Amino acid sequence: MHKIQVDILGLSNSQAGTNAYALILKESEGARQLPIVIGAPEAQAIANELEGVRPQRPMTHDLMKQIIDTLGATVREVAITSLHDGTFYASVIFDYSDIEIDARPSDAIALAVRCGVPI
Q: Cβ distance 36 to 48 under 8 Å?
């Protein structure tokens, strides 16, 4: 599979509905953009990490990173793997193994920004 690295360009309110946001991804070395509609909690989780906001207690994606770190695993990257019937699919890919975990793109990206890994 040919992979294209993307960066988070931004988040904006989505016209898809209330409590929905558009996560805009942009090719790291190109001009194409990919909007993905995500929920408000996931948008907030991504925005908090990008802005350096630290809640008093770990949120779900912070907990996921702590579990991964505690178990001695390392996330290598996250990948948006497919689009079926208007729904995007993603995987969290780990170093030193063939393990790929199916994930919603918003959760995978929230984890990627915490782990500092490519999308």
A: no
